[in-house]
């Protein structure tokens, strides 16, 4: 059954021990029905998205470029997300307090691409790259995508130094009761998580003593500082754990969690049965006995305990057991649980959550990716073809959208084992808070014990996607941000210089992009003076013109533009281990990159020497640019002065016989104006009239005093196409003077006009790589020691599951690392990695 289909409805399953009544759950007004209704309400109110960024590398030098591919999916199904059209990317400083770079990636059907150019002034350190959508800003930053990016400099003094004291400090050991609590007289299980002073897992051993100093149990971590051991607390006893780094050093004392006298325990066996996840429930709540009327005792209490299982926030199993049994087991069929983290919650008779446990459901719901060079080894500057294959768990070909990076392994720190990938992020770490070490270990089928160790991770890692307090509340808070199909341009129009929003004001909005392309929109302010242009085509640095004019010609407005977004800075940085960047191993990389930078500088100097005469030209700043709006270059621009306006009663008198191709016939305030060629069988088509770039009636133009006019612009031909159907006869734009003491222009804001530069989507930029089958003279003689040899962010497999790509090797005799990530449109992720030699 396909992953997306598994969430088409909620699976309801009822189970109990042999001898207990089985029943089918039906919706109603009971507490469980109300809880499920609230859970469904929360899911509909707060659906979540997930973003993953594939970067070409994880370590860079200042001045290099980070190449990006974004994957945006729906959180419930992991299918490609088309609701949000923009992925926001931040590069956060090593201290977590400042955004040093940001970008906006256009996401089309869940996929986007872009880059971040690193300034050569950036200091060395561990930065954080994070990504999110506008909708994700409604929720905690804990659920933004984030990954560490290490920035190096060639100067040794800029490299972070290790701290020997941090490596020898006593580890932090936490003890976590399975289900959430230890209860007197009930067998429980304690998970342990030991973390070094550097923030990574460290294996420990130890023991637990009671108040009499008797050893109760010994323990030892099994993987990355994680482990577990059983413990049955006795009444009146207190317990203390003693632990040390495995086999070395003195023991340190650690208190165990508080023990409650009465309560519930939840233990889960996710490894012992191939068909079911077995949930063991125990309690010693007063008054909830096993007495029955037949025994002559008081009547047995009624009610049910409920086990609720969810995956990605969607209930998949509901099972109930009798409250008058102190212990029972409920099986959860694995077939009901799709791939991912299963959140198992125990609810008391009033359907209040009392215990919770995470387990992982493994169904191999991933795609198998294979990337293979057509040759096992290659020479320098030789073409290498890569064959890529995508299949499902049954070996059938699938269509997938992929990204691929080829890097020089000797120009990067040694890869940490089992690093994060698209698979491990979507299926695991995106639903867990905190740092997860070596997440790829749990998805490598070669690791026979991966599910055992994954269960330890589920015992020790927290869950914070939602809180039950929020779900069970009578109402849910409004969400300030909506799904955005693209970048939304918005702002407010105020009356005069006050702070009162002006309602019903017509606006003309023009976007002037760096590549000289333009878009024009119209809008009208709402009752609060707000205006919105959804999915605005903002690319790179875009100049935004907004002009407001009432129909009566009033332009006494102040316009403000909202920032596209104002990101908050609260970054939980991953631990920095001084030894995870081996600078000695990078000596060759740093030297080569230093030499490469020196060559670039020499090339620039040579070019400067070749320049005999340099003439610097700059365009004169047009003080009337904002009043020309979208017509920065009119076909004819007539400057009005005292000579050509002498004796003129109207603007039309100035135009008469002064502009070739413009005919003004008749007199008074309503002459006929025609631009040559603007005629049809029905007669003359007059131009569209504008005042300072805003449409206006001809009578309003006629009433302007010639002494108040600076220029008259005439727009015809192709330029008039921007006016739409109203511009069939061309256009005439009257530009008024701006009130200087001498009757000329003045600097400063124009009433009713706003001009501002806005950063839009990251401009499309192709990854550069030389082609040595036909090299340019510069490529032929220039040394080539690229760290990233190939970056292909948009590879699509065909109907047979195949795709190909190619690149050229560099001058280095090295090992190449080839990494590919990808996903199907329905939500199956995949990852592959391989290497090849260049000799």
From TrEMBL:
GO cellular component: cell outer membrane
Residue spans crossing the bilayer: 7-25
GO BP term, pick one: siderophore transmembrane transport
GO MF terms, alphabetically ordered: endopeptidase inhibitor activity; siderophore uptake transmembrane transporter activity
Keywords: Cell outer membrane, Membrane, Receptor, Signal, Transmembrane, Transmembrane beta strand, Transmembrane helix, Transport
Entry coiled-coil feature ranges: none
InterPro entries noted in UniProt: MG2, Plug_dom, Plug_dom_sf, TonB-dep_rcpt-like
Membrane disposition: Multi-pass membrane protein
Domain TonB-dependent receptor plug, chain residue ranges per copy: 638-730
The keyword Ligase is annotated on this UniProt entry: no
Compartments where located: Cell outer membrane
Domain Macroglobulin: from-to ranges: 50-140
PROSITE patterns in the cross-refs: TONB_DEPENDENT_REC_3 (PS52016)
Family: Belongs to the TonB-dependent receptor family.
Name of the molecule in the record: TonB-dependent receptor plug domain-containing protein
Organism classification: Bacteria, Pseudomonadati, Bacteroidota, Cytophagia, Cytophagales
């Amino acid at each position: 059954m396909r992953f997306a289909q598994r969430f088409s409805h909620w699976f309801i399953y009822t189970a109990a021990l042999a001898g207990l009544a089985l029943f089918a759950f039906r919706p109603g007004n009971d507490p469980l029905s109300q809880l499920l209704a609230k859970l469904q309400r929360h899911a509909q109110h707060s659906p979540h998205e997930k973003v993953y960024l594939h970067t070409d590398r994880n370590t860079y030098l200042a001045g290099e470029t980070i190449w990006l591919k974004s994957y945006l999916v729906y959180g419930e199904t992991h299918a490609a997300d088309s609701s949000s059209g923009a992925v926001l990317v931040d590069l956060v400083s090593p201290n977590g307090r400042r955004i040093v770079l940001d970008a906006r990636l256009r996401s089309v059907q869940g996929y986007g691409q872009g880059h971040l150019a690193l300034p050569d002034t950036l200091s060395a350190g561990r930065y954080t790259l994070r990504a999110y959508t506008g909708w994700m800003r409604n929720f905690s930053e804990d659920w933004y995508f984030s990954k560490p990016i290490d920035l190096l400099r060639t100067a040794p003094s800029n490299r972070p130094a290790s701290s020997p004291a941090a490596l020898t400090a006593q580890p932090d050991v936490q003890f976590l009761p399975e289900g959430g609590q230890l209860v007197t007289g009930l067998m429980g299980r304690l998970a342990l998580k030991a973390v070094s002073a550097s923030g990574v897992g460290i294996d420990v051993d130890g023991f637990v003593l009671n108040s009499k100093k008797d050893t109760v149990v010994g323990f030892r971590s099994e993987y990355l500082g994680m482990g577990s051991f059983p413990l049955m607390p006795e009444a009146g006893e207190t317990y203390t754990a003693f632990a040390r780094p495995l086999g070395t050093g003195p023991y340190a004392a650690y208190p165990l969690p508080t023990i409650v006298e009465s309560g519930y325990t939840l233990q889960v066996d996710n490894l012992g049965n191939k068909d079911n996840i077995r949930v063991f429930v125990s309690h010693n709540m007063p008054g909830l006995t096993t007495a029955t009327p037949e025994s002559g005792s008081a009547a047995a209490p009624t009610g049910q305990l409920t086990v609720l299982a969810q995956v990605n926030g969607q209930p998949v199993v509901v099972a109930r057991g009798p409250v008058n049994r102190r212990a029972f087991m409920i099986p959860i069929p694995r077939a009901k649980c799709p791939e991912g983290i299963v959140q198992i919650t125990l609810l008391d008779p009033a359907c209040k959550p009392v215990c919770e446990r995470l387990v992982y459901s493994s169904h191999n719901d991933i795609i198998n990716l294979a990337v293979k060079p057509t040759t096992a080894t290659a020479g320098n500057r030789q073409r290498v073809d890569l064959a890529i294959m995508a299949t499902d768990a049954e070996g059938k070909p699938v269509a997938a959208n992929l990204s691929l990076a080829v890097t020089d392994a000797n120009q990067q720190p040694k890869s940490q084992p089992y690093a994060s990938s698209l698979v491990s992020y979507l299926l695991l770490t995106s639903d867990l808070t905190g740092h997860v070490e070596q997440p790829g270990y749990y998805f490598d089928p070669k690791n026979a014990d991966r599910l055992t160790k994954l269960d330890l991770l589920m015992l020790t890692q927290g869950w914070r996607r939602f809180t039950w307090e929020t779900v069970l509340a009578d109402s849910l808070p409004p969400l300030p941000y909506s799904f955005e199909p693209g970048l939304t341009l918005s702002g407010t129009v105020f009356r005069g210089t006050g702070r009162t929003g002006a309602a019903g004001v017509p606006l003309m909005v023009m976007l002037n992009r760096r590549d000289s392309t333009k878009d024009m929109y119209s809008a009208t302010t709402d009752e609060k003076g707000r205006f919105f242009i959804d999915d605005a085509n903002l690319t790179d640095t875009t100049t935004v013109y907004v002009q407001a004019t009432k129909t009566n010609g009033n332009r006494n407005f102040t316009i403000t533009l909202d920032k596209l977004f104002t990101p908050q800075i609260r970054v939980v940085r991953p631990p920095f281990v001084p030894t995870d960047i081996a600078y000695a191993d990078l000596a060759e990389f740093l030297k080569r990159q230093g030499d490469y930078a020196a060559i670039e500088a020499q090339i620039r100097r040579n070019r400067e020497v070749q320049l005999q005469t340099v003439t610097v030209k700059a365009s004169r700043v047009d003080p009337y640019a904002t009043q020309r709006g979208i017509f920065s270059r009119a076909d004819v621009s007539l400057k009005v002065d005292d000579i050509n306006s002498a004796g003129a009663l109207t603007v039309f008198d100035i135009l008469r016989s002064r502009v070739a191709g413009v005919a003004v016939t008749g007199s008074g305030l309503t002459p006929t104006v025609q631009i040559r060629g603007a005629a049809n069988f029905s007669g003359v088509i007059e131009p569209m009239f504008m005042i300072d770039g805003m449409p206006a009636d001809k009578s309003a133009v006629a009433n302007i005093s010639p002494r108040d006019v600076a220029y008259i612009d005439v727009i015809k031909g192709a330029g008039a196409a921007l006016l739409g159907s109203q511009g069939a006869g061309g256009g005439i734009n009257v530009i008024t003077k701006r009130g200087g003491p001498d009757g000329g222009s003045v600097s400063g804001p124009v009433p009713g006009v706003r001009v501002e530069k806005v950063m839009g989507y990251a401009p499309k930029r192709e990854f550069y790589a030389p082609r040595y089958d036909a090299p340019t003279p510069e490529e032929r003689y220039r040394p080539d020691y690229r760290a990233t040899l190939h970056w292909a962010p948009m590879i699509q497999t065909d109907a047979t599951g195949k795709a190909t790509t190619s690149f050229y090797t560099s001058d280095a005799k090295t090992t190449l690392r080839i990494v590919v990530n990808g996903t199907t449109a329905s939500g199956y992720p995949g990852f592959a990695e391989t290497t090849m030699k260049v000799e």
